[in-house]
Amino acid sequence: MKTYNNPAKNTWAAITQRPAKEANTLGATVKAVFEDIKENGDQALKNYTEKFDGVILSDLKVSQQEIDNAIPLVSQELKDAIVLAKNNVEKFHAFQKIEKKVISTVNGVDCWQEMKPIEKVGLYIPGGSAPLFSTILMLGVPAKIAGATKIVLCTPPSKDGTINPAILFAAQLVGVTEIYKLGGIQAIAAMTYGTESVPSVYKIFGPGNQFVTAAKQYALTQGLAIDMPAGPSEVMVVADKDADASFVVADLLSQAEHGADSQVILVTESQKLIDEVQIELEKQLAELPRQEVARLAIENSSAILIDSIDAQNELINEYAPEHLILNVLNEDVYLDKIVNAGSVFIGPLTPESAGDYASGTNHTLPTNGYARMYSGVNLDAFTKKITYQKITAEGIQNIGPAIELMAAAEGLDAHKNAVTLRLNSLKK
Amino acid sequence: MKTYNNPAKNTWAAITQRPAKEANTLGATVKAVFEDIKENGDQALKNYTEKFDGVILSDLKVSQQEIDNAIPLVSQELKDAIVLAKNNVEKFHAFQKIEKKVISTVNGVDCWQEMKPIEKVGLYIPGGSAPLFSTILMLGVPAKIAGATKIVLCTPPSKDGTINPAILFAAQLVGVTEIYKLGGIQAIAAMTYGTESVPSVYKIFGPGNQFVTAAKQYALTQGLAIDMPAGPSEVMVVADKDADASFVVADLLSQAEHGADSQVILVTESQKLIDEVQIELEKQLAELPRQEVARLAIENSSAILIDSIDAQNELINEYAPEHLILNVLNEDVYLDKIVNAGSVFIGPLTPESAGDYASGTNHTLPTNGYARMYSGVNLDAFTKKITYQKITAEGIQNIGPAIELMAAAEGLDAHKNAVTLRLNSLKK
């Protein structure tokens, strides 16, 4: 871990430079797969699944029987943990509903917004060594609360054609309406166009490798929406002199174990803490199963000594971390100043992993500086707001003349006429 | 205007087909302009402005002197109209602020969201025959309410190097922080990368021609956000048998006059109304300055007789109109069923032009069926929500064991360890 002592502001960008993202060169591959699936539907999906996942499937859809058979394979204690997490995620996201509130901007002009569901959504859950059932909670629960009528889940099958039982348990728990054994580009293409088996959706959510990311970008060009641009995960830990170095290191490593391109940054006023962290880092790394990956990430990462809290806040906002841990006793000197962050974890007993799994907040968050302009996934991401207005005779008399003038000045006479006719009807 | 009598559902998509969007073939042009501006800054901007706008500028930025000189050129009555509209837009968008509300998902686990501004935003206002000052209100007012510190406006200069006075009046009224004489691809590129004169921003808003649209798409690939995908404007008017045909026609033409690719659709249970509308259409068209454009749009458009209100609602949701006018006496049979629409105008005295200018709702809305998954521009569009959590000893004891189990099951040991260390510290 590189260390810096009160670096000059004009060096911050270089110090906190995120690992370079490879240019996306998968465009042609993605386009070819999408076009094949658009034209050949299920047969193309089965061909790609055979080719890339090494499985010959007769049915792409997971049957109720398969789900019923899988659920007893999940231990009761893991089920209880998932249910606890689901309940908290549900509470926090249900709490984000907005009530219809009407405002009369002038007498006779009532305006309001209402939250409505995105009716059909697609969730992508990667395969690989570990089953990411937690992401199913983070995406499926708000989809359900929003009121989606179709919640489609795609996840690649194992070599034996099955899906991990914990994935199936979480999916049925949150109310996923259908599950398909599909991974990679073909999963995203199937949900974009729809096939004989797989329905098309309006918006696609979820993490994935470079192929999935490129496929989601392509889906955007085909008229779908996606959750947000993807990038490697990152955490910034701000710690005061009283912070426990072992907590700090465990939090840094929680991020570092995600991948070699993860970035972790420690910001502190305490040189002593930095020294302790360096020692503790070696200790914890040595015991970590994913230490090889974590070591690569740590090489890209920095511990930055900054004496001034104001300067620390400036650095936080400039970096715009996906996860920000404030391992400090006095968070108030930070909270009001923070404008750019995905999710903020406050105090020594609030590890990032709480939000990753079970506190209730969402773990799908803006990376790569996108916290400057994107929210993490929340209820908003599964809804849109429709605006409404209802105008009375008094209302149109109050605002009509202004509309006529403005429309005329913009050269839009039909716009003006729509008001004039109504005002005239009221003069009769 | 084509007419249809209770068409079968499987023909709806064809009947309401939006005018085909030309494939974007401007990619190479856009990329070249962006790269030139990234490398050559202001000088490249001036070259493009000379080439495309026919103006040689010494300063790209509009000076305070220019603004002061222009304001007296706007008539007092137009100023008053703009101020009235601005006040209403301000009321409606300020009303969309959310208060911080904390929920304890379990004892000791407090979670909340806070709305924070997107600090730097760029607004693009097209040039051309009519000055679209109303769009400045729609974008500048929520930017200001959100708390943006930089609100950059780009708009192309006239041949004499000036900007329309009504544009300058609206810009200073809403609190735009700086105005540049830039149009087209070069404006979007300048706000993407920043130059010696023009600051870079995080998110770009505003309408534009195919060049601007392609440039905004390219800005997306360069790490910026944009308001939403662009498409031609559209309105669906649902009218009952009591609707005044002249109001219906004026509303249809308000949309049709925007462009030949605008789409307008009438849905009604009344054949009599359709007949009256056809006659009235000719009458109003004959008097419309932009009748040539409006006629082309009307050719692409339909009047659809549908007897059943349920079927009407299905069609509305399938089409997902940008603007939906419910020119009916009993709106209740529609409102609860509508899931997909941008902005809804309720009752005979609520023309779309009210929302275009002065009622307070926003006129930047999702076109092309994007109302299925996008909101129109609102306060959310200029903000993001940060999530926060603070966990006590009791809290981590309540959720810690579940996190340990889930993290272990996902193979993420450092995530587990971040909790284990904290739980252990509490046992001491």
Question: What can you see in these coordinates?
Answer:
Two copies of one chain form a homodimer. Chain A has helices spanning 12-15, 27-53, 64-70, 76-94, 133-146, 165-174, 184-193, 210-221, 245-256, 271-286, 291-299, 309-319, 332-335, 352-357, 393-409, 413-427; strands at 2-5, 103-106, 109-117, 120-124, 150-155, 178-181, 203-205, 225-226, 234-239, 263-268, 302-305, 323-327, 343-346, 383-391. Chain A has 428 residues and is an alpha/beta fold. Chain A folds into three domains: 27-102 and 114-226, 3-Layer(aba) Sandwich (Rossmann fold); 231-375, Rossmann fold (3-Layer(aba) Sandwich); 392-427, Single alpha-helices involved in coiled-coils or other helix-helix interfaces (Up-down Bundle), CATH 1.20.5.1300. In chain A, the strands form three sheets. A six-stranded parallel beta sheet of chain A has the order 1-11-10-9-12-13, with helices on one face. The longest helix of chain A has 27 residues, at 27-53. Chain A is globular and about 85 Å long. At the A-B interface, helix 4, strand 2, strand 3, helix 9 and strand 13 of A face helix 4, strand 2, strand 3, helix 9 and strand 13 of B. Strand 14 of chain A pairs parallel with strand 13 (343-346) of chain B.
